[in-house]
Amino acid sequence: MAKKTAKPKTTDKPSASDPPKKRGRGRPKGSKNKPKDPTPPPPQPNIFENKSVKQIPLTEIVLDDRTFQFRQSLQDRNLQENIETHGQQIPIILRPHPDQTDMYQVISGFRRLTAIKAIGWTHVDAIVRDDLDDDKKAFHASLIENEARKTYSDVDRGYAVKRYLELGHKYEELEAIFKLGTRQLKRLKKIPDYPKALQDALSDDDSNVKMAHAFILNAFHSDEAYPDFDLKHWLKRQRKEALNRTALQAAIRREIGKDDVFKLFSTQETEDEDGNSTTRYIFPRRHLDLSSMPKADKKALKRDLQSLLKLLG
């Protein structure tokens, strides 16, 4: 009977001559931290592609039609000097005017057109978009052209968002254009209702006022619980100190609230026709998130509630 030959035993242990293997932590099972998709995002649509540039007389453009203008300031001295020196580098976008025969309506390029008019030129380089035969298409083209060139300020975006929604469009469409979430778009929508001084600060690169600062400043400015809030003072201070969002909010609370960082209501003394003094209690409309409220605010809220209960007897 033939003897069976024993098979050599194998081992997973590396020999001394094997190079050391790299060890990694790996991903936990079910981890959401998936590897990034190497596929690059689709390119931004080029609205100038396959479009011929024409020289259009200014007399054939309805210059006072601001249907698709969302900028709050069209004056740009640097742009005017650049065009005067180097010529118009980027054409404006026009479409046949829907209400005036043989005339054009401006879709995008209001600043360039304003600069060219100020220089004194009689013609402007333009692309005429016959395909923009309804306002939704024209509106979309206007936003994409300006957003692609990163020429809109937050104030400009705010007016564009508000107008877009007024025309019955959805936030989802704006998310795709501005690459922003609904929450950010809703904040932008409020900008047209901000005081002019705050809008001007948002448009000024030297003001050190960003969207987060503007949101805080407007909240205090519009809150009836803080009738003495001085917006211009805080805009000057922000320009000088360049506080971050948290520091600005804390500084405002310390200065206008003294030791009371939170006020459930404010009081106002008034007189009737007979000269009798009465006290009005003003309760500003607000949403209280107790889960995230700081301890100091909870303490102030408790004190105000106790005062209110005493007033009610």
What does this structure look like?
It is a single chain. With 313 residues, the chain is α+β, with helices and mostly antiparallel strands. Helix content is 40%, strand content 10%. The strands form two sheets. A four-stranded mixed beta sheet has the order 1-4-2-3, with helices on both faces. A two-stranded antiparallel ribbon has the order 5-6. The longest helix is centred in the C-terminal third of the chain and has 18 residues.
Rounded to an integer, what's the Rg over CA atoms? 31 Å
- In percent terms, what proportion of residues is strand? 5-15%
Unreliable residue stretches: 41-45
> What is the percent of helical residues?
40-55%
**Biggest sheet details:** 4 strands, mixed
CATH class of the largest domain: Alpha Beta
- Report the total helices: 11
**Outline:** elongated
Helix and strand content put the structural class at alpha+beta
Walk me through the topology.
Blueprint: E1 54-57, H1 77-86, E2 92-96, E3 104-108, H2 110-119, E4 123-128, H3 135-148, H4 154-166, H5 171-178, H6 182-190, H7 196-203, H8 211-222, H9 231-241, H10 245-257, E5 266-271, E6 277-282, H11 295-312
Parallel strand pairs: 2-4
Antiparallel strand pairs: 1-4, 2-3, 5-6
Helix pairs in contact: 1-2, 4-6
